[in-house]
Every structure is written in C-alpha cells, then in structure tokens.
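so my prof wants the structure for this chain in the tokens format not the other one, which i didnt know existed until like an hour ago. anyway here's the sequence
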Amino acid sequence: MYQAIPYSASRAWPPRPHQPAPPPPTMAESAALVADAVAAASAQEEEQKQQGGGAGEEVRRAVAECPVLVVGRRGCCLSHVVKRLLQGLGVNPAVHEVAGGEAELAGLVDGGDVVPALPAVFVGGRLLGGLDRLMAVHISGDLVPILKDAGALWL
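here's what i got, hopefully its the right format
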C-alpha cells in the first residue's frame, strides 16, 4: 500500500539548500544596466520602424495575390467575426494580422490618404471595407456576386 507524504506547512517539500541572496548592485553597475536597457529599447524601436515598411509591402503583396484578404489585429474579435461570416458563405479568406494597426495600411486604397479601419476586407485587390460595410453588403445580397467576380466563390 502507498504511504502518504506527511504535510507540514513550516517546511518546503523537498527540502532545498539555503542560498544566500546576491549583493545589491553598486551605483556604477546600476547605471550601466539602465544604459544597456535604454540602448536595447532604442534598437528595438529602430528595428520596428524598419520592419514597418516591410510589413506594408507584405500587406500590398497579399492584397494583390489573394482573392479575399482580411487584415486585422492579432486576437481581434471583429476579425474573427469577419472570417466566420466569409467561411459561412464558402470562402476561405486569407488573414493577415498586423501589430502596428492602421499605419501599415496607409496607401493601399485608391484615395491614398485614406487609412481603412481594422479589420479591413479586401476582395479582388480592392478595399471592400470593415465589418459594418461587409455586413451591409451581405444583408443587401450583393456580397455573393462580388465574391464570385473576384474568383473567391465557385458556385
């Protein structure tokens, strides 16, 4: 038969050897740590700025290649609703998740200065709109013909 392990709140199980706490850093070490953290943060910001241009190009390429593209933020519930609506119609949309928001979508629409709200739905290389526009087009019955024209539906 199994034996129960005795429980005692006063000691940890299994007993661990005592390790002394490290000494606190000196003022010079603290200043060096802060300087390193600031340098790392500024380098990370520069890297994100450089990737921002690349992310915009990636979205442009995806809009040109995919018949239906949903661009939204990671974990956004509205993007999920758009995707499920399109899947319910028989369309398998490509989903592109952006971290920076609408700034990556600037210049993708015909106006140039207009920045679409997220989630943005692109059908046939053109901006259809966000969730509100997609729902309006769906309710009016115009969404299925638009998807057929874009080659996203084979019905």
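also thought this was worth mentioning. The chain has one domain: 27-150.
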